[in-house]
Design brief:
Length: 66
């Protein structure tokens, strides 16, 4: 039976490294501010557009299956 090897990742490979740093905190703060600055009407519009895109993809997929 093979022994369990330790994780081979190094700190430079860690995709979540930035979030733990002070730079990551300011980056997330800016991202949250962008979302907070959007008016609700934009969220509704983008949700509607996304729903239409999904519906079109499903209709296209159904026609491909037939």
């Amino acid at each position: 039976m093979a022994a369990h090897s330790a994780d081979q990742r190094t700190k430079s490979d860690d995709p979540f490294r930035m979030y733990a740093s002070p730079v990551g905190a300011s980056f997330l703060k800016k991202a949250n501010k962008i979302f907070e600055d959007f008016p609700v009407s934009k969220y509704i519009l983008f949700s509607f557009i996304f729903a239409v895109e999904i519906a079109v993809v499903f209709v296209f997929a159904i026609h491909l299956i037939r």
